[in-house]
Amino acid sequence: MSGPFAHSDYVEMTVHFRCNLKCRHCMILDSMHWLTPADDDEFEALLAENRQHRKWTGLILTGAEVTLRKDLPELAVRAREAGFRNVRIQTHAMRLADMAYCEKLVAAGINEYFVSVTAGDAELHDYITEVPGSFQKTIAALHNLDQLPGVSLLTNTVVTRLSYQSLVATVELLKGLQNLRQMEFWNYWPMEEDGKPELLVSHFDVQPHLMQAIRLARQYGRHVEVKNFPHCLMGDLGDALRNDQPELRIDPRFWTEFNRNGFHQCEYREVCGSKQCLGLNTAYVKQYGWHADRLQPMPRSP
Ligand code: SF4
Predict the structure, then answer these.
(1) What single DSSP character describes residue 103?
(2) Which CATH number covers residue 24?
(3) Which tens digits make up the pLDDT trace of 158-177?
(4) What is the pLDDT of residues 56-107, one digit of tens each?
(5) Mutate to test the pocket of ligand 1, among 237, 266, 291, 301 (most ligand atoms within 8 A of CB)
(6) Number of independent structural domains in the chain
(7) Residue 232 beta carbon below 6 angstroms from any ligand 1 atom
(8) Whose CA is nearest to atom 1 of ligand 1?
(9) Residue 289 lies in a domain
């Protein structure tokens, strides 16, 4: 199902690699100290590219926690001047618990906020982020942003052994947000050949919670995107699986780490017709096996 934000309309640039949370599932926790963010020349080159070719309407500023950059509003102003109609930040949003800061970012042109909400309650969220009080700030930020005209909210919840039973509670927690247009559920990427046992969880344990969360989120009018879950286990909700992403401009050394996930492993990969499925990954197979008796190759289109 195509949603309100077409990935092909966006380009994503990593502009900062520092964070003041320590999320247990973080994909770049071990690499953010050596990954290099785009410098000003690279940022300017991207703006020039869009001025000339108008390839994208949206820019996503990401990396680790971009609100730690003091010049974030200036980056947004420059992006708007270069023709980006939408500027999004990927953030844990804690700094946006301050309404004055929200207003400053919105005035600078940041109109989309992709916010990490790791769980549906404070105790679990703060356990996952390892920072007491982080939940309260992130939720305050979402409610601040929800009051500002022209703002779109998106959320992401990473699905791990810690969070999977909290997915439905997370949808419920956010049900009052008027501007929440999209909820995403990203199944844990181990980023190594042996995933952390604290985080790895069987797809069959996750399945009922994830399906219920998708149904409920849709009931509340959210568009839903799921990443890295077997397509054949999603039944009539398979249209929520979208593994494609906007074009990402990142330190190329990132991809060496990312590919350690070992995606596309499945006994049925050669015969399966799913174009979205990433199959299983190395850490998952080591822990839970191939599930050859429970996965079902999908029909190929004629
Ligand atoms: S059979 Fe394998 S490749 Fe096909 S949808 Fe299921 S997990 Fe994905």
Answers:
(1) H
(2) 3.20.20.70
(3) 999 999 999 999 999 999 99
(4) 999 999 999 999 999 999 999 999 999 999 999 999 999 999 999 999 999 9
(5) 266
(6) 1
(7) yes
(8) 297
(9) no
Residue 2 within a domain: no
Looking from the CA of residue 297, the nearest atom of ligand 1 is 1
Pocket flag, ligand 1, residue 124 (CB < 6 Å): no
What pTM was computed for the model? 0.96
CB 37 within 8 A of CB 75: no
Please work out, in degrees rounded to the nearest 5, the angle formed at the alpha carbon of residue 117 by the alpha carbons of 115 and 188: 100
Ligand 1 center–CA 284 separation, angstroms: 14
**Residue 287 in domain:** no
Does residue 173 fall inside a structural domain? Answer: yes
Cβ atoms of residues 64 and 19 within 8 Å: yes
Whether the CB-CB separation of 99 and 148 falls below 8 Å is answered with no
Residue 59's domain spans which residues? Answer: 7-261
* Among 147, 213, 151, residue whose Cα is nearest residue 176: 147
